[in-house]
Amino acid sequence: MSATTTSKYRERHVTNWRSTDHPIYQMVAEVDGDRWEIAIGDFPAEDLYHLVVQDQEVEGFNEWPATWNKPSPSSRHERGE
Question: Rounded distance, CA 7 to CA 11, Å?
Fold first, then answer.
């Protein structure tokens, strides 16, 4: 599900991304009470990043949005189930 234009999600200003220890969902943020997660795809066969909001994949993309911070490896936070 590759996105060629900027979506409503990637237009958001998200500065609270944290790295996780989860093998699939490697980054997480809370946005307006919703859990946003980033899964790393099997690039180049699929998109590099997959955005998951409230357990639903909403889009895939290859370039990290300029309006989002990129977490450092030291900002680890476990994925809650």
Answer: 6
